[in-house]
Predict the structure.
Amino acid sequence: GSFDEECDYLFKAVLIGDSAVGKSNLLSRFARDEFCLESKPTIGVEFAYRNIRIGDKLIKAQIWDTAGQERFRAITSSYYRGAMGALLVYDTTRRSTFESLRKWLRELREFGSREMVVVLVGNKSDLTHSREVSLEDGQSLAQLEDLSFMETSAKENVNVEDAFLQMINKIYDLT
Ligand code: GDP
């Protein structure tokens, strides 16, 4: 039998954040354990699945990714529809992507469901020499907005699993 028949829950979650912060690579790490050095702008929407076991329950996590939100405003509402969680990603080496979070949070509140689980992710933590956003800046924003927070490296595979699993566990706790 396929997993679909046996799976207890299907959780939809979305990746959001500025272009080139590493959303696609975080997803491919989580779903396929791959990292790709070339940046290929996502056209429209892609998604990937990963099956997770929590206790005796089987959860199918469906994670949506798009790099084209700015260019594809029309898809925004379908992108968020039914999403129970979001990874809100910025690039620790580009301050502008951190400043954009205000805009992303506004969009989340407009299109996302009220009880959506949001994990703030500062990616590219491996690039210590070009850091423009401190760990403390990420922590303070997370505290202010009441979000979970983690710094990750999709490249070095640091905290990627943790960030996704934290989100999925929190969604599970709400069901
Ligand atoms: P997206 O547009 O947000 O989906 O970003 P991508 O996943 O396409 O990544 C944009 C660029 O950043 C690519 O060149 C990636 O190889 C690179 N990148 C992504 N994550 C990391 C990371 O954790 N560390 C480093 N050093 N580079 C990364």
